[in-house]
What we know:
Layout: H1 7-13, H2 46-52, H3 57-85, H4 89-96, H5 112-118, H6 127-134, H7 147-154, H8 164-179, H9 185-204, H10 208-221, H11 234-250, H12 256-311
Helix pairs in contact: 1-3, 1-9, 2-3, 3-4, 3-8, 3-12, 5-12, 9-12, 10-12
Amino acid sequence: xxxxxxxxxxxxxxxxxxxxxxxxLPTPTSSQGPATIEMTDNDLMPAFIAYIFPLNGTDxxxxxxxxxxxxxxxxxxxxxxxxxxxGFDGVAAALREADLPNAGAxxxxxxxxxxxxxxxxxxxxxxxxxxxxxxxxxxxxxxxxHPLVQDLVNSPELGVTPTLxxxxxxxxxxxxxxxxxxxxxxxxxxxxxxxxWRAEIARIDDxxxxxxxxxALLECVRTIDPVFSDxxxxxxxxxxxxxxxxxxxxxxxxxxxxxxxxxxxxGQGYANCVAPVVVAREGVRFAARQERIxxxxxxxxxxxxxxxxxxxx
Length: 313
């Protein structure tokens, strides 16, 4: 639901169109801050290349830490000042201090190190980030069980009474402040390039070597758990796996520890299965990236300068 603030982060850092409950998809473990940006007028930084034209989950992490996180933090500070002016001091503080998630690992960009160590077990985020995820764009909240109301119940430090009336007032302010504090134009231009790149590398999966690896992956993921034995293709496996995650999440007989254990086991099994696909993709993607850089070098250098300037106003 982060229609304005996170449209860019979604396009540039995760290939998956949605985030399941409890942030169930895996994320990188890196806690490092943004990389130091050094450049000359005619150079493309490796981090910027990874950001616009990622080859794998490692590139996704580099782009997220170097560009997405700093730009979103700028946005959160601006939105925080906006909601503070409307009297929501606790919400403003939560937005400024929000724990940002790491870049989402996805089908196109599996983060192998994270999958092998933690599987599908992921970190949680703070109240400020959760509020933005629960926000209803330009709409009225009528359900007392709505996620935004529950955020207010679970986070009394926000200083907002968990009623429908208060939730709707906050929702309206959050939406208005988000719309009036959008990401700089340079990031929108980067988003367009990133979306185009993802469409291109998705087509790479139709090349013979990658298709063969994907067929082997399908056989492999069916063996991770009996619940996956009848999946018909990769998309079906992802949707089945998400559905089973949700079933476990809401099963009162499954403890947090048991849930985490299954998520780790499934994710580690998936890492073993997807590794040959990652290898098969790498060389074809690299060649495609080099061609893109050659064709668009001047545009990329100019965009890199604009993005860097936006991060250092």
